[in-house]
Design brief:
Layout lengths: L1 E10 L3 H12 L4 E4 L4 H6 L5 E3 H9 L4 H6 L1 E3 L1 E6 L2 E6 H5 L3 E3 L2 H15 L3 E2 L3 E6 L7 E6 L2 E12 L18 E16 L8 E5 L2 E7 L5 E7 L10 H12 L10 E15 L3 E2 L2 E3 L5 E2 L7 H20 L4 H28 L6 H20 L1 H11 L5
Parallel strand pairs: 1-2, 1-11, 2-8, 5-13, 11-18
Antiparallel strand pairs: 3-7, 4-7, 5-6, 9-10, 10-11, 12-15, 12-16, 13-14, 14-15, 16-19, 17-18
Helix pairs in contact: 1-6, 1-8, 8-9, 10-11
The structure holds arabino-flavin-adenine dinucleotide and P-hydroxybenzoic acid (PHB).
Length: 393
């Protein structure tokens, strides 16, 4: 049995786990990351695409901003579209804040490279990861690695292991509640080798359903279609996907350019929030503690804001002050519920609700009225701008 000790043991090498380890290293606090998948798997995941201004500031402060500055695309706003009309909502004009289009995959690539250069201890392909003695001051992590049993004893364990991880599941059922909400639709997402047909993201409510035009670079487009949650990707040929995107995004005088689809997948739309993000010597960050539908571009950004708050608490702890750490769970959950309500608002605003035709038609016209209000009211647009660009920490 290989036995190590560290200050913070982090379970999961997604963006939350890698960023927390990096933020702690930046303040001289050692940690070890334990990941059950391969590094290639971690690097290959295609997920979020938009960084809030606060996320960019955090990554830049930690020395991870070089490629964001050179390759990221700063957007002043978005387009909202319904009933064949497209309106730009300019966040920068309204509240002086922006967002940056820079894929989660790039954030993870930057983090993996930084950790590699720094010689961080990250165990990939760890088997049978388990956490122990969470109620004690010396919690432990056990796992197998390269055929050998390992044990890490730490001051704290942080669950950055996503929705299906082991950490939240290790909190006794009597001590935690999960609040969940599922939506009656899903997103079919594609990556296409074609220059974006728009300068900023387009969110469109169409009679046939939601569609969105995002991007990953000046040569790669990222687009989404609302589909039924039970939909099978095999039913969606490239031609069918492009036809639906042309229908749902088209406005007079504008052309959606098509290209080779290099990736397509269907993602369910759901929300969940754990009732606590701290349990004795265990803390939860990111998807281990909450999930949001991707409509408001909040999943990755919530993970980054959790990490920013928890890192501050741990740094203060080792400086002798436990006030911030003691408030982490409450502060992170308060911020998360504001993110949840915004994501729910954006999702319900922009998707065709299934159901019988009459209630469906009423909902649709109510949505059109809401979009009409938002696109013509500066007050409503300021609300949207403040939430989309990110709540201050
Ligand atoms: P992650 O799930 O990214 O990482 C958790 C890590 O823990 C993984 O590497 C996993 O392998 C590892 N792990 C799990 N169990 C373990 C165990 N037992 N032991 C050790 N390691 C373990 N967000 C947006 O903002 N916009 C989007 O468009 C968007 N699209 C998405 C599309 C999909 C298909 C999905 C699933 C999510 C999407 N998200 C999006 C949300 C997503 O970006 C998450 O919010 C983000 O990955 C959260 O990061 P982490 O908390 O690090 O969790
Ligand atoms: C993306 O580019 O993947 C993306 C952007 C904005 C969203 C959701 C997804 O709201």
């Amino acid at each position: 049995m290989s036995h190590e000790t560290t200050r913070v043991a982090i379970i999961g090498a997604g963006p939350a786990g890698l960023l927390l380890s990096w933020a702690l290293r930046d303040s001289g606090i050692d940690s070890i990351v334990v990941e059950n998948r391969s590094q290639d798997y971690v690097l290959a995941r295609i997920r979020a695409g938009v960084l809030e201004q606060g996320s960019v500031e955090t990554l830049t402060r930690l020395g991870l901003g070089a490629r964001i500055r050179s390759e990221g695309m700063v957007h002043n706003g978005i387009y909202l579209q319904a009933a064949g009309e497209r309106h730009n909502v300019n966040f920068h004009d309204l509240i002086g804040r922006t967002v940056t289009v820079y894929g989660q995959q790039e954030v993870v690539k930057d983090l993996v490279a930084a950790h590699s250069d720094a010689g961080s201890t990250i165990y990939y392909e760890a088997a049978d990861v388990a956490v122990h003695d969470l109620e004690s001051a010396r919690p432990r992590v056990t796992f197998g690695h390269a055929g050998e049993p390992h044990e890490i004893t730490a001051d704290f364990i942080v669950g950055a292991d996503g929705f299906h991880g082991v950490c939240r599941a290790s909190i006794p059922d009597r001590d935690i509640t999960l609040y969940a909400h599922s939506y009656p639709f899903a997103w079919l997402g594609i990556l296409a080798d074609v220059a974006p047909s728009t300068d900023e993201l387009i969110y469109s409510l169409h009679d046939d359903g939601f569609a969105m035009h995002s991007m990953r670079s000046h040569t790669v487009s990222r687009l989404y279609l609302q589909v039924d949650p039970a939909e099978d990707i095999a039913n969606w040929s490239d031609d069918r996907i492009w036809d639906a995107l042309q229908t749902r995004l088209g406005v007079p005088g504008w052309t959606l350019h098509e290209g080779t689809i290099t990736e397509k997948s269907i993602t369910p739309m759901r929300s969940f929030v754990a009732s606590r993000l701290d349990y004795h010597s265990l803390f939860l960050v990111g998807d281990a503690g909450h999930i949001v539908p991707p409509t408001g571009a909040k999943g990755l950004n919530s993970a980054i804001s959790d990490v920013t708050m928890l890192a501050a608490g741990l740094i203060d702890h080792y400086a002798g002050d436990d006030a911030t750490l003691g408030r982490y769970g409450e502060a992170a959950l308060a911020r998360q519920w504001k993110v949840q309500q915004f994501s729910q608002w954006m999702t319900e605003l922009l998707h065709r609700h299934p159901g019988d035709l009459q209630s469906n038609e009423f909902d649709y016209r109510s949505q059109l009225g809401r979009i009409d209000y938002v696109t013509h009211s500066l007050h409503a647009q300021r609300m949207l701008a403040e939430q989309y660009t990110g709540f201050p920490l």
